[in-house]
Amino acid sequence: MRPSSSSPVPLYLQIADTLRDRIARGVWRDGDLIPTLEQIAGEFEVARVTARQAVQLLTVEGALKPMRGRGTYVSAPCAAYQPVHVVTSLDALAETYRNTTPELLTIDEHRRMPAVREQDGTLAGAYTYMRRVHSMGGAPYCVIGLYLEDRLFARSRARFRKETVIPILMEMRPRPMTRAHQTLTIGSADADTAYLLRIPVDAPVARVQRVFNDAAGVIVYYADVVYRGDAVNLEMDLDV
């Protein structure tokens, strides 16, 4: 993608984002020799100094490594996780978690009330809040802040603390939710999320908000999930 001189983002940052994306997608793999500064400058139609700034930025980040007299090599393998497919049913969502078995790192747990919209439903008396990082093969792909109604959490504390929550809820009888809704929006990473996902600040992310309600409209589960932009794959069949 050719950088835009009309964008408020400096040209070298636009080029660095494109090069970083090539590494993330495996176009450039760990140990590959990347094009010269002259070749990069020619591809993006910029001055050589601009290409050098982009390469230097990725070098500082550790994604590239210059070798004197030999060129610059990729020093960061592409992500080890598989893309997360956006699904449109609760059963499919639970199956996704069952099939991936992510590595969980809980970085916070306490009682806390979620900030929700009126149309999301009625709040229960208390919730257990957990903030987690999900990874595959040691590569973090999402940060999730979830609120689980306290009485549900009490039914299986040990499992909720070490496993993904949605498959456990799906196994409960009777099933505690009768309505489920999720919203996907595109945004950019703040400093904290960028640190946890090992991505640059303002890198693209996909934010998914999920709300599960019981028969009375009470929110039994609320989650705010932030995925790396390169970890989400949205596919839809179009009618023809």
TrEMBL record:
Assigned keywords, A-Z: DNA-binding, Transcription, Transcription regulation
Domain HTH gntR-type, residue spans: 9-77
SUPFAM superfamilies listed in its UniProt record: Chorismate lyase-like, Winged helix' DNA-binding domain
SMART domains: HTH_GNTR, UTRA
Keyword ATP-binding: no
Gene3D superfamilies per record: Chorismate lyase-like, Winged helix-like DNA-binding domain superfamily/Winged helix DNA-binding domain
Name this polypeptide is given: GntR family transcriptional regulator
Organism: Paraburkholderia unamae
Organism phylogeny: Bacteria, Pseudomonadati, Pseudomonadota, Betaproteobacteria, Burkholderiales
